[in-house]
Amino acid sequence: xxxxxxxxxxxWSRLIKSFRYASEGIKHTWANEQNFRIHSILAGIVxxxxxxxxxxxxxxxxxxxxxxxxxxxxxxxxxxxxxVDMITKEYAxxxxxxxxxxxxxxxVFSITAVLVGITIFLPKIIALLF
Length: 130
Ligand SMILES: Nc1ncnc2c1ncn2[C@@H]1O[C@H](COP(=O)(O)OP(=O)(O)OP(=O)(O)O)[C@@H](O)[C@H]1O
Prior knowledge:
Blueprint: H1 12-32, H2 34-52, H3 57-87, H4 93-129
The site of adenosine-5'-triphosphate has 10 residues, from helix 4.
């Protein structure tokens, strides 16, 4: 049996399209979500500081991991907000809970990222000062 719609194992055009759609999602979030812009700029500052302060490769990898986690969760949070807004524009307790819980997830991981940053940077800053 042969399928008329047999697809290539890897379709480059589909891959490029999916990158384009993902970039559009990131651009939309950057344009509309202040928290995403703040987190992205802070991430850039942290990565520059980590290079200047001679943070080890493993520590830098850890910073990249938590930064990616925060930004990824921001994107999921934005998707959930849009999803709720698409379902209802009216006040609904379920809508409130979904948005608040999603925002809570971002906050939990952001605090985790800050704690990782403090653990890595504080000893280096103290060593620089004293
Ligand atoms: N349909 C709704 N029903 C009940 N409460 C809502 C509803 N929409 C939003 N809220 C409440 O208002 C808060 C802010 O919602 P909003 O959609 O403005 O999110 P936001 O985090 O401010 O996002 P944005 O950055 O897009 O303004 C939510 O966390 C939730 O508590």
